[in-house]
Amino acid sequence: MDDAVGTLTRGTAEGGLTTGAVARMLGVAPTTLRSWDRRYGIGPASREGGRHRRWTSADIGLLECMCGLTNAGMPPAEAARAALAAASRDAPARPDEPMSRSRTPSSRTPGASPPTPGASSHAPGALPVGRARRECRGLAGAAVRLDAQAMDELLDAAIDKYGLLAAWESVIMPTLHAVGRKWETVGERYVEVEHLLSWHVSSALRRAAAQRAPTAGSGVSLLACTPGESHTLALEALAAGLARQGLPVRMFGAALPVEAMEEAVRRTGPAAVVLWAQSRSTASRALVARVESIEWGVRGARRRPAVLVAGPGWAGQLPSRALHPSGLAEALDVLAAISRR
């Protein structure tokens, strides 16, 4: 049985789900649910002890409709009116239902038919996450709504639950790819979604990296994008993964000039250097050879770094001696082994 269905079944049997459980199920911040309840009447029909919210399957169906409409770009107030109107057509009002949840018809966008409860995954503004983890669907929905708090909470929860590596490969990357596919199919729309999601992913990776101090005695890994390369998220994931293993890392980010890269290598004396290139136009075999030739240390005991090339830009033009890990997991293993020599 699907996790969400199982949670809903158990919660219904126990008298309804808590706000926190519903928030995790739908990928919405608990504060957002409380705000929708307070402002628009999109809340539970009954409360435990008169105050604590307990969400039934019918309440959650209404929420799913609300999420589908806001994911499609409809303003929350208008989405609430449309969701309540759809619910009033699909089910009779309950005798004990409060006025804030009265199912009287209300205005909606002319010509628009709000999705029925439970159909939010097919909303026109939803990201194409397919059959990915439910965390992907929640994160994608929060990104489309530009819900910053929900994105932070969902990203932190995924990293805590699965670990950074699995969260990156099973939750974060599929959602980022979904945003990219959506952006490609609708022109200039959703660029703001991509920018905001990328920022929050970057912030979550830095929070994860800060949880452990470097272990003394390990060699430093220097990470940098090649000159002209601006895509940094995968490299940030690698930096966070190294930091969480207690391995020292220096992350120089996007488009590091060649001269600055050489100076950084000489000053830090790294055990390894990782050069990221997203596209073929930014992958340079000459740059790899130049970095490989950099030496430091006293005469008679000069050292050179191991050089790793990473990213799709190196496909088909791999330097002969440079290491080329196939993904984040392999890169972490290789750098850990080099760093601990």
Overview of the molecule:
The chain is of the alpha/beta class. Helix content is 50%, strand content 6%. It is built from 13 helices and six strands. The protein has helices spanning 3-13, 19-26, 30-40, 57-71, 76-90, 134-144, 148-162, 164-185, 191-209, 233-244, 258-268, 285-292, 328-339, and strands at residues 47-48, 52-53, 221-225, 249-251, 272-276, 306-310. Strands 4-3-5-6 form a four-stranded parallel beta sheet, with helices on both faces. It has a two-stranded antiparallel ribbon with strand order 1-2. Strand 1 (47-48) and strand 2 (52-53) form a beta hairpin. The longest helix is centred in the middle third of the chain and has 22 residues, at 164-185. The radius of gyration is 25 Å and the shape is elongated.
What's a concise summary of this model?
With 341 residues, this protein is of the alpha/beta class.
What strand line-up does the widest sheet have?
4-3-5-6
Q: Tell me about the biggest sheet? A: 4 strands, parallel
Extract low-pLDDT stretches: 1-14, 92-125
Order of helices and strands: HHHEEHHHHHHEHEHEHEH
* Percentage of β-strand residues: 5-15%
Mean pLDDT: 79
Can you count the beta strands?
6
Question: How many H/I helical runs?
Answer: 13
Shape: elongated
- Class per helix and strand makeup: alpha/beta
Distance between the termini: 47 Å
Helix content: 40-55%
